[in-house]
Amino acid sequence: MKRTILILAANPQSTGRLRLDREVRDIEDGLRRSKFRNRFQLEQRWAVEPRDIQRAMLEVKPHVVHFSGHGEGDAGLVFQDVMGQIKLVSSEALSGLFALFADRVECVLLNACYAEVQAEAIVQHINYVIGMKQAVRDDVAITFAVGFYEGLGDGLSIEAAFEQGKQAIQTMLAGGGIARKLSVVLPDDSPAPLPDSLIPVLKCKN
Fold first, then answer.
1. What pTM value is reported for the model?
2. Residue 203's pLDDT is what?
3. CHAT domain spans which residues (predicted)?
4. What tens digit of pLDDT does each residue of 69-78 get?
C-alpha cells in the first residue's frame, strides 16, 4: 500500500513571499530519486483556507501531512481567507482536527517558523510531529524537508529521516534567506538564535 503525503501550502498576499513551489518541486524530485519511490504518493493543496484542511484530509486520507507556510508562534499557523488575507488557525483547533484522523496519520511536518507550539498540541494525538523552534530561513526549511522525505523514500524510520533532514542542513552552503515568520517580536532578553540544524524539533507521542 502506498503512503500518501498531503502538502498544505499557504502564503497569503500580505505575507513575505516563500518559495513554496520550489519546496514542493524539490520534495517531489527527492522522492523520485529515492529507493522506494513507488511506495509514496504526493498530493498537493495550494492557497489553503482553514475550511480546506479537513476537506483535504477526508479526500486524500494521508499518512503524512506537511504544512508549508508561515507561523506566528502562540497565535497559530497562517492560512488564508477567501480574499487571500491572513487567517490564523490556533493550536487548539489543529489539535482537535488531527484527533479526528489519529488512526491514519503517522506524522505531521510543520515547516513554518515558531511551529513548535502547534507541534506540542498535535502530538497529543499523532505519533510524530515536527515543528520549528524559532524563525527558519526559507532555504533551510526546504533543505530540511527534502532531506527528510529522501530519508523516508529510502526506507528510513521517521526518527532516522528526521536526523537526515538535520544533517542536510549542516551540509548546505551558508547564505541568506527569507525567514518564515511574520511579526513575532522577541524580547530583548530572548536567547540567541539556534544553529540552523537545531531549529527542527521532533515530538513523539507518549
1. 0.90
2. 96
3. 23-170
4. 999 999 999 9
The Cα–Cα gap between 162 and 153 comes to: 12
List the CATH number of the domain containing 135: 3.40.50.1460
| Total domains, the chain | 1
Cα 184 to Cα 177: distance, rounded to the nearest angstrom: 17
> Is residue 71 a contact partner of residue 78, using CB atoms and an 8 Å limit?
yes
What would the 3-class secondary structure string for the chain be? CCEEEEEEECCCCCCCCCCHHHHHHHHHHHHHHCCCHHHEEEEEECCCCHHHHHHHHHHHCCCEEEEECCECHHHCEEEECCCCCEEEECHHHHHHHHHCCCCCCCEEEEECCCCHHHHHHHCCCCCEEEEECCCCEHHHHHHHHHHHHHHHHCCCCHHHHHHHHHHHHHHCCCCCCCECECCCCCCCCCCCCCCHHHCEEEEECC
Q: Which residue segment(s) compose the domain that 144 sits in?
A: 3-204
Beta-ladder partners of 88: 78
Q: Does the pLDDT at position 186 exceed 50?
A: no
